[in-house]
Amino acid sequence: MQNVISVDNMRKSDKYTIDNITPSKDLMLRAGKSVYNSVKWYGKAAIICGTGNNGGDGYILALEMAKNNIECEII
């Protein structure tokens, strides 16, 4: 598998965007809702959240699922 973007470059891009364009909370909302809208959900789901903004993305995804009566567990 070939890396498309490095971790360092992604961190710098996120920081620039948060500092200059879009607050981190708005980015988390967009990310969580985008994942929710990109999948055809059925049955139960588990969302594994790390720390930081990626964890926030997962919590927004879980919120969207709960709003739509989709059972999920956050790990």
Account of the protein in words:
- Helix 2 (24-38) crosses helix 3 (52-67).
- With 75 residues, the protein is mostly helical.
- The protein has a two-stranded parallel ribbon with strand order 1-2.
- It has helices at residues 7-20, 24-38, 52-67; strands at 45-47, 72-74.
- The chain starts with 6 loop residues before the first helix and ends with a strand.
- Strand 1 (45-47), helix 3 and strand 2 (72-74) form a beta-alpha-beta unit.
Q: Please provide the count of β strands.
A: 2
Helicity, as a percent range: 55-70%
Pattern of helices and strands: HHEHE
Low-confidence stretches: none
| Biggest sheet strand line-up | 1-2
Largest sheet properties: 2 strands, parallel
The radius of gyration computed from the alpha-carbon positions, rounded to a whole number of angstroms, is 14 Å
The assigned structural class equals mainly alpha
Beta-strand content estimate: 5-15%
Query: What would you call the shape?
Result: globular
Distance between the termini: 27 Å
Q: In DSSP terms, counting alpha (H) and pi (I) runs of 4 or more, how many helices?
A: 3
Mean pLDDT: 90
Provide tags for this entry.
single chain, 75 residues, mainly alpha, two-stranded parallel sheet
Brief summary:
This protein is mainly alpha-helical and 75 residues long. Helices cover 60% and strands 8% of the residues.
Write the layout of secondary structure elements.
Blueprint: H1 7-20, H2 24-38, E1 45-47, H3 52-67, E2 72-74
Parallel strand pairs: 1-2
Helix pairs in contact: 2-3
